[in-house]
Amino acid sequence: MTLRDRIARVVACGGLCTLAVGACDARGETRGPAYGGTVVTVPGVGLSPPAAVNGFNPLLISSAFDQQAAGLLYQPLIWVTRRFHINRILSIARRITVSPGHRIFTIVLWRHWRWSDGVPVTTADVAYTYHMIQRLGPRFANYGVGGIPTDVSSFQVLGPYRLRITLKRPVNPRWFILNGLALLTPLPAAAWARVSITGLYDHLADPRFFQVVDGPFRLLTYVPGRYVTFGPNRRFAGPDKPYLHRLVMRFLHDPESIFFGLKTGKLQIADLPHELFPGRHALRGFRERTVGPVWGFNYLGFNYANPRITFVRDARVRAAMMHAIRQRLLIRVQYYGQGIRDYGPIPPQPPTYLSPLARRLERTGAYDPRLARRLLRAAGWRRGADGIREKDGHRLVFTALLSPGQIRGPTLIKDMLAKVGIDMRLREKPFNEIVAMTQGPDATKWDAIYLAWGLGVYPSARNIFACGGANNFYHYCSHRMDALLDAVPIASGKGAIYRYEDYFIKTQPLLVLPGQRHVIEARDDIHGLKRAYSSLGGFNPQYLWIARHGRTADRRPTGSGLAAGGGHP
What is the DSSP string of 263-279? Predict the structure, then answer.
């Protein structure tokens, strides 16, 4: 992203329009960005079918919806762009120096960032985040990701704007910066220092607790199960202050409610539900923007600890499922052509980290039901009287949990698996209940889940696929996979990540499914969508603005900000 001065001209457009560039068009609508107005949307636009937001503390949340909301409140230490560069102007870190041995990282912060109470953002705030991650341990959803804190031998604050992190071993610097340092979002140490971990949990969704922020927005209201409202942080020190007066996220779940909300004007921005794609022409006064697939993957995940489905431990059964699914048909029917084939843990677009095997499968597909049947026979599964395979008195059957409104794709998958002798049963449950089932005391009682997962910028997912990983709710464990994952952080080049990727594709620890593109519907007087919605699933609503008809554009809010600079996320 480039830094631009986006100050709106103040031009009277009530009667005669001037011909000045950036003033107004022939209808009296302001062309340049205007301040004010409210946009009502839902969580997860451009990312996933929506679900409720349940918390705002970056240390304690794991869902993409919570992370999206928390990202509006707290500016990252490292701002990563859609092309995997660091944008130094939008990062709190000004400079990162790496020692010749790739073990010592010295981080220098910008001096202009401020919390909303006027206190400077300093290394004390970065240290607070790091030490809280240490205290939380595996309760921190990304514990161990990017080596934080597991690979750190020393964390030293050298001054208010300078700190040094020494690692236990040499690493790939790009891996550590993009996955490790990116986790150290500064949090307000002065405001939170006396709050216990229990207190943090108690105030996970309390707007009164999140009053000190340094991001572009502040939290105004939160009504559990209904909506959350954000307003601009008037002391935001970044170069682009929010244009909107209010941003509202309504917690709608089913596709019909979202479509009706768009049609009636109760929603101004939302993803067009894929199953209602043919009805998009009924939405008058909207513009469309297609984004994605996001930087992550859709999947069918299995519970390896469940004694009822021990068959999933056999890689031949999992590979058979991969070859039984016709992803092109899924894309055409489920996503109305808005998708791309995917078989591995690294998304096909952009193809930065895609191995030759992954590239070939994305082009040719893996659909081969004859091979699927051969694999199942080789694993000892024979057709029963009703066509479902059996072995040693057990049937090849499992139940997949899916969120409301997701039935179309899983129904297709169910039919495809049935043709090779696998009985996949479907059960809809709210997203929050699915998450609770996979992480609570009944974590061994579910069979499979139909979900999506977002990745770190450098896409090694040890926290998901390593034995005992912090996010390994599937209880999957392979020492071969562990060895491949261990090599990724220390190897130079892409060879190690290719080997991990190829092993995953061949063994399918999770059954990876097509990635979908999202068609965002936005009311036609709302602008800034290109910058607000990243192709990788990012959401930056500070760039959204509403055109005014027959009115003078509002003045830009006052506040400090950088005047020049450049860099990469």
Answer: HHTS-SEEEPPGGGGGG
217-253 pLDDT, tens digit per residue, is 999 999 999 999 999 999 999 998 999 999 999 999 8
| Three-state DSSP state, 198 | helix
Is residue 8's pLDDT more than 90? Answer: no
> 223 to each of 5, 134, 250, 261, 405, how far by Cα in Å?
36, 31, 10, 19, 23
- Per-residue b or e along 379-400, where b marks 16 or more CB atoms closer than 10 Å to that residue's CB: bebeeeeeebbbbeeebbbbeb
* Dist. CA 131–CA 149, nearest whole Å: 9
pTM for this entry: 0.79
Angle, helices 315-324 vs 369-378, to 10°: value is: 160
Residue 285 near residue 524 (C-beta atoms within 8 A): yes
Condensed to tens digits (0 to 9), the pLDDT of residues 178-216 reads 999 999 999 999 999 999 999 999 999 999 999 999 999
Helix H, strand E, coil C: the string for 364-409 is: HCCCCHHHHHHHHHHCCCEECCCCCEEECCEECEEEEEECCCCCHH
Would you state the pLDDT for residue 84?
81
